[in-house]
Amino acid sequence: MVPDDRTSEETAVYQAARDAQASAQGEKKPNNDGVIQSEEKKKITGDLPDGRHELQEEEAYDKLGFSYPTHKKWRILTVIFIVQCSMNFNASVYSNGVSLLQDKFGISAQAGRVGQMVFLICYAFGCELWAPWSEEIGRWPTLQASLFLVNIWQILAALAPNYGTVIVARALGGLSSAGGSVTLGMVADMWDANNQQFAVAFVVFSSVFGSVIGPLVGPFIEVNLSWAWICWVQLIFGGFVQILHFALVPETRASVLLDREARRLRKNGQSNIYGPSEVKKNRFSAHEILTTWARPFEMFVREPIVLCCSLLSGFSDALIFTFLEAFTPVYKQWGFSTELMAATFVPIAIGYFIAWAIYIPTLWKQRQLINSDEETPPEIRLKPLLYLAPLEAIGLFGFAWTSLGPPHVHWIAPMIFSALVGIANYAIYMSTIDYMIAAYGPYSASATGGNGLARDFLAGIAAMYSTPFYSNVGGESYRLHLEWPTTILAIVAVFVTIPIFVFYYKGAWFRKRSKFAETLAGERKQRRSTKPAAKQAA
Predict the structure, then answer these.
(1) pLDDT averaged over consecutive 10-residue blocks of the chain (538 residues)?
(2) DSSP 127
(3) Cβ neighbours for 297, distance < 8 A, ≥ 6 positions apart
(4) How many C-beta atoms surround the C-beta of residue 294 within 10 A?
(5) Which domains does the chain have, with CATH numbers?
(6) pTM greater than 0.85 (yes/no)
């Protein structure tokens, strides 16, 4: 069963029509406990050949995440914001531990970066592996299991007797990280496709902001503490968010909530009512497990929407990751110490915040347009990128040629341009994610898992070449050796921006070739077409 994503208004109209029909036929309506008192117990949909009835979303809509009060939804999202920050903090703070690993294990700086590469690449696949299970067994147990395992591997990394153990711990930590695919899937659980944008923007902000917390905190650990404290700080943060999630976040996945409601109804006398997961045969057979795990990878390869949006977001993230390697050599020209280097990441954080603020009025306008009676193409969600994505290339070019150092340029100049890069990076991530959640609805966790795969995998690769890139292009003896590497990144950013315009204007072509997205869109359109009939019946 593909869960329904109709809005509360549509459900109210649908229920009114159903009640009117029941009244005309003399059928009894459910009582307050949801137990249908009619002898026939006839349903509009969901009757199975064996006499069982599969509970539908419209029959228990008030039990689903869509019906949660607004304050409850945003309480959940606030906790998810902190959870997402902790996950990305784990990825970013490691770079400040490289010098500490060198001192402890006598390794080279390049060897020390292997731990970061391994974590990010495994994190990429972790997003894909956890996402479909959150759709099968629920978001809550999936995130709890993920957070618990990540915390366990922090202990192993902190107490590691050698660098090989650190690598193993980082790899397991990456694989254990559920990432944004699960947290973004929770957005689709609580908001329909036409009203999700503000929630998506908030969760995306948590993801990019979390990646900045590491460089803000890490320098102080690097200077004053040991390698083990890089891990202990992650464990403290991770333990706190796990307790917070355990206490304050309920389950949101519709199929899990329907299963719970079906069990409750059976206890109240309706022995033939079953949830969507309960009617599945061999749900946890080897074939079903492999099929579940393969779903996000299959969507990544076979769905052009997922593939193109993920690669676009991934290449942009790799550019940013490489670009950040320039901060240390560039700002050292102005005498920035290790602790003061933390301040150089503040403009990036400000850029992320500005981008989030820019999206708020933009999303209001989009919502009005999307919720109008006219058929609105989903590419409208990509429109902000036409104006914001070019800031990536502009910011990189500007940073490159304001990196001349004193007395030619003040240090504030490259910081301003780095904020522009932050704005563009947020916009690319936000719009591509929003587009995919709208296209894939209840299966958005698997779809956005492809986005996470591309972003983290390409960032992991960048972890190994970024330092040599800035050290070797032009040679350190060349006067402009810091300017040209960033200029090359800016040129690449221009080519990364071009597909955005192609996708915006030719999006229909991609959607027609994304079979799963087209199927879901057709089902949503069919449900909307019943709305006038429901109103007339009501």
Answers:
(1) 37 39 39 37 54 74 86 93 90 88 89 89 83 82 93 94 93 87 83 83 88 89 91 94 93 86 82 74 67 74 80 84 85 87 91 92 80 69 88 91 84 92 91 79 69 82 83 66 84 86 80 67 56 44
(2) H
(3) 128
(4) 14
(5) 56-282 (1.20.1250.20), 303-529 (1.20.1250.20)
(6) no
